[in-house]
C-alpha cells in the first residue's frame, strides 16, 4: 500500500484522523500535528499500468492484421497458382530426388510466388505415374536421374522397376552423380549410362547400422529405467537400460541387413554386367574416386555436369554424337582460327528451341498442359463412380490432429484424429469403391493405433480396405494393416514387430545424490504405484508386467483373428520381431508381395475392374492452399483446433533441454551423422507420445542402413 494512501479503511495510530483528500492547498487543511508537505507538492496520480500494455498489444495485433489484409488483397488480385507448363519436343524427364521422395508431398512455402521458387515436390505415386506416362509420350525422349536425396529401400526398388519398364520403349536413361553413398548409387544403378565429374566420390563400403545406448549417461546422473518389453525381440527400450544390442536385437538386424545387402549386390551385378563376387570384392575395399570407380565398371564416363548436359541435349534432339570425357575434350585441337570460333558460336546461339535441353521435373510434368492427352492415349478409363481412395499414413503414430500451419507441422506424422476424418470421408464418398491405406510407419501410441483400428474395422464393413506397406509398417503400423481386408507388402518392407514396450524412469538415486527427500500421503496401498521418487518394488514390477501383458495379448489376439490363425501360431512369429516383407509373407503375416502398383491392381480386382483399365484416384491428405492457411494463421483463425505449440520442432525442444541457443543447436544438429539425426528425430517423436501415454508399440529405433 502506498504511504500516501487515502484508503478510508486503513488503520490509524493514536487519535490521528484519517488522511483528508489531497488538494492543492493540502498544507492549509491538514492536521497541524502532521509534518507539512514539501513545497510544490502534487498529489500522485493513480498509475494506469495497463495502458502501455494495451498499446503494445494493439500494435502487435494490428501488425499481423495489416499483414493479413495486405496478403489477402494481393492474392485476391493475382493468381499465383502454378500454371501448367507445355512439354516441348525433345524434352527429358528430370528425376531429382532432392528432399527425398515421400508418399505425399506439398509446397510448404507460402511465399514461393514472391521469391520465384518453384514447387518441385512430388509424391511417390506421382513419380511412378510420370515415368509410366513418359514411356508413351512422344515429347519425352529420355530420363535424367539426379540422385541427390534419400529414398526408402522399398520405394527405391519400385522406382527402379518403373524405370526398367520405361527402358523397354527404347528411350534413354542417363544419370549424373557427384558424390554419394550406396543409397544414392542404388537410385541410379538402372541407368543406361552413369556420368561423374573428375573429383567425384562415392562411398561404397557395404551396409551397416548403429544405435545410441544411453544407460551410461543415465547412470551418471542417477536415473534408472525399468523396461518391460514383450517379448525378447522387442528392443525399443534397450537404449535406456543396455549398453549394446541384445542378442535377439542383433540377430534380427543382421538378418535384415544381410537380405538388403544381397539385394543391393545382385542389382548392381545385373545392371552393370558384373559377377556378384566382383561386386562383393569392390564393396569390401571402401570409398572410391571417379577414376577407380570407372575402372571397376560402376560408371561409364568422367565428365563435368555442363558437358554432360550438352550430351543430354544432343541425344534428346536425335543427334547421337559420340560421348567424350573431360580428358578427351581437353585435347581438342587448338588450331581453329578466330573466324571459325566466331562462326561456331554464332551457329550455337541461333539454334532453335528443339535443340535446347528441355528438362521437365516430375511436379511440372504431372500437371503439364498435354498430360491429359497422354493419360487417355490408347487406354480404357473406368467410370467416375468407380474410384480408389489412397490414404497416406506416414510417420510415428499419436493422438490428436495434424497441424494446418502453412509452414508445415514438422516431420511427417500420423495423428489418429486426422486419420479417422480422412477414412470417414473416403468411406462416405459414393464414388469411392475401395480404399488403400498406404502405410509408412514404425508405430507409436497404443491408444491412437487402437482408435484407427476401430475405424478401419467399421469402414471395411462398407467397402474393401487394402493395406499397402511402404518402407516400414511395423508395430503400430502393422496394427493398422491387420484390420484391413488384405495386406500387400513389398519384399523389402520392414514389418511385424508385434509387441509392446514400456520404459519408465526412476529418480530415487538422483534424489539421494542431491540429498533430496520426499514424503507422501496415500489413501490406499497402491496409491504410489510406480512413483518415480521411490525405488520400484517387486510388487510394482509384477503389477506393471501384468498390465503390459494384457496389452500384448490383446494385440496377439487381434492379429490371430485377422490372419485366421491361432493365438500360439501368431505368438511364435511375434515376440516383437521385425521381419522383411518376404519373410512376413512366408510367416503368414501378409497376403501379397508387391508395391503400390500391386495394391492398386488388387483394389481394381475387388471392384471388378481390369488391371489395364485406368481409374481415378483420390489421395489423402489433400493438398491445401498454403497462402489461404497463412492468412488464417495471421488472422487468428485455427481450423484444426491444435495448440500453437504443437508445431515446435525437435531442434527447439533439444535447445531448451540442454539450455543452448536454438541457432547453435541447429548448427550442431546439422553436422551430426545422418543416422544420429534420424534417431534424435525419432526419439523426440516417441518422447512427445510418452508425455501422454506410458505404453507404446513402436520399432526399437529409426532403422537406417548405411
How does this structure look, described?
The chain has 706 residues and is of the alpha/beta class. Among the domains are: 83-197 and 303-327 and 353-379, no CATH class; 381-698, 2-enoyl-CoA Hydratase, Chain A, domain 1. The protein is 42% helix and 15% strand. The protein contains 28 helices and 23 strands. Strands 11, 14, 16, 17, 18, 20, 21 and 22 form an eight-stranded mixed β-sheet that branches. β2, α5 (153-167) and β3 (172-176) form a beta-alpha-beta unit. The chain starts with 25 loop residues before the first helix and ends in an 8-residue tail after the last strand.
Q: CATH class of the domain at 381-698, anyone?
A: Alpha Beta
Radius of gyration, in Å, reads: 33 Å
Number of helices: 28
What is the name of the CATH superfamily of the domain at 381-698?
2-enoyl-CoA Hydratase, Chain A, domain 1
Identify the quaternary structure here: single chain
Structural class designation: alpha/beta
The CATH architecture name of the domain at 381-698 reads Alpha-Beta Complex
User: Could you say which overall geometry the principal axes of the C-alpha atoms support?
Assistant: globular
Beta-strand residue fraction = 15-25%
Give the beta-strand count: 23
> Approximately how much helix is present in the residues?
40-55%
- Distance from N terminus to C terminus (CA atoms, Å) equals 69 Å
Q: Note the main sheet.
A: 8 strands, mixed
Low-confidence stretches: 1-32, 68-81, 110-118, 327-337, 406-410, 630-648
Reported by name, the CATH topology of the domain at 381-698 is 2-enoyl-CoA Hydratase, Chain A, domain 1
Report the average pLDDT across residues. 78
Amino acid at each position: 500500500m502506498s504511504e500516501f494512501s487515502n484508503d478510508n479503511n486503513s488503520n490509524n495510530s493514536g487519535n490521528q484522523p484519517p488522511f483528508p483528500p489531497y488538494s492543492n492547498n493540502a498544507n492549509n487543511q491538514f492536521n497541524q500535528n502532521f509534518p507539512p508537505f514539501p513545497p510544490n507538492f502534487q498529489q500522485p496520480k493513480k498509475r494506469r499500468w495497463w495502458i502501455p500494455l494495451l498499446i503494445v498489444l494493439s500494435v502487435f495485433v494490428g501488425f499481423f492484421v495489416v499483414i493479413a489484409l495486405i496478403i489477402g488483397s494481393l492474392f485476391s488480385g493475382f493468381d499465383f497458382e502454378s500454371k501448367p507448363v507445355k512439354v516441348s519436343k525433345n524434352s527429358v524427364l528430370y528425376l531429382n530426388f532432392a528432399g527425398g521422395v515421400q508418399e505425399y508431398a506439398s509446397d510448404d512455402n507460402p511465399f514461393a510466388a514472391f521469391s520465384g521458387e518453384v514447387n518441385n515436390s512430388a509424391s511417390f505415386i506421382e513419380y511412378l505415374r510420370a515415368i509410366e506416362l513418359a514411356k508413351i509420350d512422344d515429347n519425352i525422349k529420355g530420363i535424367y536421374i539426379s540422385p541427390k536425396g534419400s529414398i526408402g529401400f522399398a520405394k527405391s526398388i519400385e522406382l527402379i522397376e518403373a524405370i526398367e519398364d520405361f527402358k523397354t520403349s527404347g528411350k534413354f536413361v542417363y544419370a549424373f552423380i557427384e558424390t554419394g553413398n550406396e543409397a544414392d548409387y542404388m537410385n541410379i544403378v538402372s541407368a543406361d549410362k552413369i556420368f561423374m565429374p573428375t573429383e567425384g566420390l562415392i562411398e561404397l563400403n557395404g551396409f551397416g547400422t548403429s544405435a545410441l545406448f544411453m544407460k551410461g549417461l543415465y547412470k551418471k546422473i542417477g536415473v534408472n529405467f525399468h523396461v518391460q518389453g514383450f517379448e525378447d525381440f522387442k528392443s525399443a527400450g534397450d537404449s535406456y537400460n543396455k549398453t549394446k544390442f541384445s542378442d535377439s536385437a542383433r540377430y534380427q538386424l543382421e538378418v535384415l541387413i544381410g537380405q538388403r545387402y544381397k539385394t543391393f549386390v545382385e542389382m548392381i551385378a545385373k545392371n552393370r554386367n558384373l559377377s556378384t563376387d566382383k561386386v562383393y570384392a569392390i564393396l569390401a575395399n571402401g570409398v572410391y574416386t571417379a577414376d577407380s570407380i570407372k575402372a571397376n565398371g560402376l560408371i561409364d564416363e568422367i565428365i563435368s555436369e555442363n558437358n554432360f548436359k550438352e550430351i543430354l541435349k544432343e541425344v534428346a534432339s536425335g543427334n547421337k554424337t559420340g560421348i567424350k570425357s573431360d580428358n578427351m575434350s581437353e585435347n581438342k585441337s587448338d588450331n581453329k582460327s578466330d573466324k571459325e570460333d566466331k562462326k561456331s558460336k554464332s551457329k550455337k546461339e541461333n539454334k532453335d528451341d528443339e535443340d535446347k535441353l528441355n528438362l521437365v521435373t516430375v511436379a511440372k510434368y504431372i500437371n503439364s498442359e498435354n498430360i491429359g492427352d497422354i493419360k487417355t492415349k490408347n487406354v480404357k478409363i473406368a467410370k467416375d463412380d468407380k474410384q480408389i481412395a489412397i490414404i497416406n499414413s506416414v510417420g510415428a503414430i499419436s493422438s490428436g490432429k495434424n497441424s494446418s500451419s502453412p509452414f508445415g507441422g514438422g516431420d511427417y506424422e500420423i495423428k489418429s484424429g486426422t486419420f479417422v476424418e480422412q477414412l470417414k470421408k473416403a468411406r462416405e464418398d459414393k464414388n469411392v469403391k475401395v480404399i488403400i491405406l498406404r502405410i509408412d510407419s514404425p508405430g507409436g501410441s497404443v491408444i491412437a493405433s487402437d482408435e484407427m483400428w476401430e475405424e478401419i474395422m467399421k469402414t471395411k464393413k462398407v467397402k474393401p480396405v487394402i493395406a499397402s506397406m511402404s518402407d516400414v509398417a511395423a508395430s503400430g503400423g502393422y496394427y493398422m494393416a491387420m484390420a484391413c481386408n488384405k495386406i500387400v507388402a513389398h519384399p523389402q518392407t520392414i514389418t511385424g514387430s508385434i509387441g509392446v514396450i514400456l520404459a519408465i524412469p526412476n529418480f530415487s538415486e538422483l534424489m539421494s545424490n542431491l540429498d533430496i527427500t520426499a514424503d507422501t500421503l496415500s489413501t490406499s496401498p497402491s496409491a504410489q504405484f510406480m512413483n518415480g521418487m521411490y525405488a520400484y518394488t517387486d510388487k510394482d514390477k509384477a503389477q506393471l508386467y501384468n498390465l503390459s501383458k494384457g496389452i500384448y495379448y490383446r494385440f496377439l489376439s487381434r492379429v490371430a483373428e485377422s490372419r485366421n490363425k491361432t493365438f500360439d501360431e501368431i505368438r511364435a512369429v511375434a515376440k516383437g520381431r521385425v521381419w522383411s516383407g518376404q519373410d512376413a509373407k512366408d510367416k503368414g503375416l501378409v497376403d501379397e508381395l508387391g508395391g503400390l502398383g500391386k495394391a492398386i491392381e488388387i483394389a481394381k480386382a475387388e471392384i471388378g475392374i481390369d488391371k489395364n483399365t485406368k481409374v481415378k484416384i483420390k489421395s489423402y491428405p489433400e493438398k491445401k492452399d498454403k497462402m489461404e492457411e497463412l492468412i488464417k494463421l495471421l488472422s487468428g483463425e485455427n481450423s484444426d483446433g491444435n495448440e500453437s505449440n504443437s508445431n515446435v520442432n525437435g531442434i527447439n525442444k533439444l535447445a531448451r533441454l540442454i539450455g543452448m541457443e536454438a541457432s547453435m543447436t541447429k548448427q550442431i544438429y546439422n553436422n551430426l551423422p545422418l543416422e544420429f539425426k534420424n534417431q534424435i528425430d525419432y526419439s523426440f517423436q516417441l518422447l512427445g507420445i510418452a508425455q501422454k501415454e506410458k505404453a507404446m508399440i513402436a520399432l526399437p529405433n529409426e532403422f537406417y542402413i548405411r
